[in-house]
## 1
Amino acid sequence: MRLFILVAVFGLGLAQHNPHIKHGRTTIVHLFEWRWADIAEECERFLAPNGFGGVQISPPSENIVLSSPWRPWWERYQPISYNLCSRSGNESELRDMITRCNKVGVNIYVDAVINHMCGAGGGEGTHSSCGGWFSASRKEFPGVPYSHWDFNDNKCRTSSGNIENYGDANQVRDCRLVSLLDLALEKDYVRGKVADYLNKLIDMGVAGFRVDACKHMWPGDLDAVSGRLHNLTATWFPNGSRPFIYQEVIDLGGEPITSREYFALGRVTEFKYGVKLGTVFRKWNGEKLSYTKNWGEGWGFMPNDSALVFVDNHDNQRGHGAGGASIVTFWDSRLLKMAVGYMLAHPYGVTRVMSSFRWNRNIVNGKDQNDWMGPPSYGNGSTKPVPINPDQTCGDGWVCEHRWRQIKNMVIFRNVVNGQPHSNWWDNNGNQVAFGRGNRGFIVFNNDDWDLDVTLNTGMTGGTYCDVISGQKDGGRCTGKQIHVGDSGYAHFRISNIDEDPFVAIHAESKL
Ligand code: AAO
């Protein structure tokens, strides 16, 4: 009996590690702060045709509306109810998006904020995204409803009521994260309300959740909620599919709470990945690309089947959360293309690509004074649509990294090489490296300050391939460099350190 329960629990957990991505696709894109109507269009016109597997959307729950600073992006991390209306759109727009993306085989993953409600200083009134009334001071949220009984304050043992020391696991879980009213997830009632919220989204057709601030929730409480979740809807997913769960836990070491405590429930965000990859590509601390021969678990990262990986995220691209200065973002576009290219070529983890908006970055003494700035918006605070330029880039301050040719083509590369082993490694003991994925793909990087000029075993079948970084296959023709692979599998590569993008990638479907 005991064994049976163990197997059942373990099996359930592992099931929640599967993103249920369709059609051999592999990658999730975070369309940070996009409107539902734009995401629906993007699924149809761009994501499905270019092999993207899923979208992480911004929190859809009703949130506080803040005016000082003016409409920061982070107001959406302060729910005031689970009604589905936000700056991204209302419930029917959300439903339409989920359906249209599912129809073209693109999954939707919801950013679920369930650890807390708004900040304790949020006042009271109807300054909320759907106009629902709440009182932060009285801890009343009638839209759920939650009352003061449903919060953790009686358990918290710090004098401020906030988390003061990450070295104390109890306060990290029982006190307020940056003053956000901390829900008592040990209560059956609260678990039920959270599960109802997530189940509503599951029934609408989403494929899973990025669960916000999991470090601040007890794994046992999360387990209880997870046990109440419905299977994914049979309209879009195989019978019995569990929702994909990836938990935001920032574990860079040095704290009592570790990622490991959360592996049974689903995947976990591997924050070490972007910190280290940034350090390597920036060549800081004596790091070299050649040291990444054993990238992945060999670098002390969590087990492959638990990891959700990314180069940057919506927090650490602007100095929030953790990661620090090594994080590579769109502000360093040449490095970003290389780092994302490396991540997508490498077999470790489930990969997520960041898609950002631009803001007026203003760094004073290492801190961005404008780290709060919300998405491109009109004077009345409503979010602007994402216009598409004739060259396929985005306008109006939307960066759309996922549309950059090099990144989009590496998303396709990852799909083409899916399931193939990491193979044919080469390095120059410095910052020039190459590796393949069985006989399906090969990638070469030159991050040294001199040219790369070398003949390498690609493991691929003979023929002429189109480099998908400097260009791509366009009908029968190649708009970029051509790489000639001999019958022996060897090919000659020449990459100048001053090339626009000093890396080359070929795959089975870029053969001419
Ligand atoms: C805003 C205001 C606050 C105000 C609050 C309420 O900024 O001043 O008090 O409203 O009125 C986002 C924003 C917040 C915003 C919040 C609510 O980032 O600025 O607060 O919305 O609107 C911790 C959590 C992690 C969290 C991260 C930001 O563990 O879960 O902080 N991320 C998620 C979301 C994020 C969101 C929330 C959670 C809240 O992705 O967007 O906040 O819903 C250490 C700990 C980490 C901790 C960081 C930052 O990190 O380990 O767990 O993250 O500190 O406090 C080295 C260490 C590294 C350490 C780091 C920084 O790198 O190795 O471990 O230093 O000290």
## 2
Amino acid sequence: MAEVFKFGGASVKDAEGIRNLAQIIRLNTGKQLLVVISAMGKTTNALEDLTYAYVNQQENMHEIFERIKEYHEAIMLHLFGSANHPVFDDIANSFVEIDWILEEEPHDDYDYIYDQIVSLGELVSTKIVSAYLGSIGIENIWLDARSFIHTDNTYREGQVNWNKTTSAIQSQVPGIIEERVAITQGFIGGTSENFTATLGREGSDYTAAIFASCLGAEAVTIWKDVPGVLNADPKLFSDTVKYEELSYRDALEMTYYGATVIHPKTIKPLQNSKIPLFVKPFLAPEEQGTKITESNIIITEPAIIIKKDQILLTISSKDLAFITEEHLCEIYGIFAKAHVKTNTMQLSAISFSAGFDWDERKFHKLKALLERNYTFRYNEGLTLITVRHYKSEMLRKLSEGKTVLLEQLSRHTAQMVVKTV
Ligand code: ASP
Ligand code: MG
């Protein structure tokens, strides 16, 4: 039966990481394996910068692009020793596609341009890894994810066409991986007009879940630079605890509120197909990591999720009338139109407050739409603290020295929007 592995940018950020990936694949020889890989290191951020510089015709655009090329070349030199391997030409040709874009003046829609440029990160990383595996005798085939993951043309947030995707994957992939390991890109898909659409930042986990669910895979493993799913971000807390096992439900809630260990869209397709998800440390592949399944397991260690860059917006009607159901319908419609997803909400007699992630363009649109019928004020630079299976004493500790602007408790989840002063 098929298995899907996913390696993120951190695990392929240098030659050493790629050698380690190869080692993990060797350890799993004999499995029918599809391997989903992200762009190397911080390449996606760099390509985002490049897109921005290009659209705004900034002088530094070529410099940004050069740095991206040099970074990949340095990794290839480490892996292959000299520039004789044909992959060097292959990668140079891939980058030429960006040169062609940069030569033209930017006319197209930003999100469309973004996807055509940013997707290069995954394309080159998988080509390099595939060539390296081949060079050390691990037989593999490089697959273009855009021929399998079919999306609509919502650029930067491609919505998967499940029917097309399922039939493309089911008709081809099982036969391929019976013979050898398949290497493919996370994060990218193809539209019906054969353009590239990305699935949203950090979307490679989601790609792994899509392939797995279409294949009816036995398991998905996400290889990470942490021992598994921890109860809090180790960069922010010192005494973190690893979960041995989690329910899909807890994992879903944790990722929804900002736990970055797994992309939030990953869980649902796996849950629907009852495919277990393992999160394992790529530097210690023999360890158990965390197993996420359909279980009733109740975690005893509360999960703390910190999400920065939040806005809290308080909206009132212009005549300060009570906020009615009609107002709420309209306000919520406006949020949907501006593609703003709320993390928290609260209603009082004459106002409605909502907390969400800061995104300049979306916020701008939201404000413009609200202005017609509503007045509002907002605070920026806030932090959302979510605690799943909270204990009240803990909430006090977490909010110490901070101003709490909004607090909500439900049976299992506590949330606070705070200002650090
Ligand atoms: N490379 C993409 C990103 O950094 C996708 C991913 O890593 O999952 O957002
Ligand atoms: Mg990444």
